[in-house]
Amino acid sequence: MPAKGKKALFIIAPENFRDEELFETQKVLEASGIKTEVASSKAGKIKGSLGGIQEIEKTLLEVNLADYGAVIFIGGIGASVYFDDAIALAIAEETFRQNKILAAICVAPSILANAGVLRGKKATSFSSRKDNLVDKGALFTGEPVTVAGKIVTASGPAAAQNFGWKIVELFQK
Predict the structure, then answer these.
(1) Residues with Cβ < 8 Å from 59, sequence gap 6 or more?
(2) 3-class SS string, the chain
(3) Using an 8 Å Cβ cutoff, are 89 and 147 in contact?
(4) What is the CATH number of the domain that holds 104?
(5) Fewer Cβ in 10 A, N or C end of the chain?
(6) Could you tell me the residue range of the domain that residue 127 belongs to?
(7) Distance between CA atoms of 168 and 9, rounded to whole angstroms?
(8) Residue 17 lies in a domain
(9) Per the domain annotation, does 44 fall within a domain?
(10) Domain assignment of residue 149, yes or no
């Protein structure tokens, strides 16, 4: 079943998101016919840690989960602003509760762990976040990409394309 006509929401930090994690993953999804939108905690143009610019279509407060089949949290040093952000954690929890695709890469799997959705599930992340995932009950794999049901986690920029393909595979199921 093709992924055409489906929509995914990327959530990036208001500054210092990891460019490749957004742009490479986005390319894979869009090449597969999945429409993408990008949200953040602030509107306007946001600069990635490598200088890439992303125009924000909506803020986290404007997100309507009914519009998307997947929510994808992008990493980078700026993503730490969402580790304890009530709105970001609520989006992760509700996406999980609705049995939609929920994905996070690099340090962003800590958002999922802090939202309580990785408890008892296999997951991976950037090595600096391993202890947080384990402390929150995740079964840390250390793999570049880990899929547990409809949750996809990845270790960082080098895994971005594979991360994108795993999300596409879930859309096709």
Answers:
(1) 39, 40, 41, 42, 43
(2) CCCCCCEEEEECCCCCCCHHHHHHHHHHHHHCCCEEEEEECCCEEEECCCCCEEEECEEHHHCCHHHCCEEEECCCHHHHHHCCCHHHHHHHHHHHHCCCEEEEECCCHHHHHHCCCCCCCEECCCHHHHHHHHHCCCEECCCCEEEECCEEEECCHHHHHHHHHHHHHHHCC
(3) no
(4) 3.40.50.880
(5) N
(6) 7-171
(7) 13
(8) yes
(9) yes
(10) yes
| Residue 1 in domain | no
User: Which of 135, 70, 136 is closest to 105 using CA atoms?
Assistant: 70
Three-class SS state of 126? coil
Give the model confidence (pLDDT) of 28-75 as tens digits. Answer: 999 999 999 999 999 999 999 999 999 998 999 999 999 999 999 999
CA 138/CA 81 separation, integer angstroms: 21
- Domain count within the chain: 1
Query: Taking the CB of residue 165, how many other CB atoms lie within 10 A of it?
Result: 15
